[in-house]
Design a protein that fits this description.
Keywords: Plasmid. By secondary structure, this protein is of the alpha+beta class. It contains 3 helices and 2 strands. The chain has a two-stranded antiparallel sheet.
Length: 103
Amino acid sequence: MKYSLPHDQMHSRVITAPDGIDHLITMGGWYWNSLDWMHNETDWKNIDFIELAWKTAKQMENDGTMENPGNLPAEFQLAFKYHIWFRMKDLINKEDGIVNDNI
């Protein structure tokens, strides 16, 4: 069954960052299910999340505002998780009529 990873269990996948290095990313099943669903059902693809998370992590590194100072892979994972959550939340809010696109 699609998108059936247990939401409360941790799962890992290898994600290749824009610098060509593979990173083992571990997140709850809800994040992976959400990522897979958005990849298949919206115009947002996995690479969009990967690139956005990488840019965010590098910007945090450059600004000296990392939540994991000196640990770019951890910062990348955190940004990846955040962008999945934020985009899914936005889609849910739009579906529920909470977001007004006319503003």
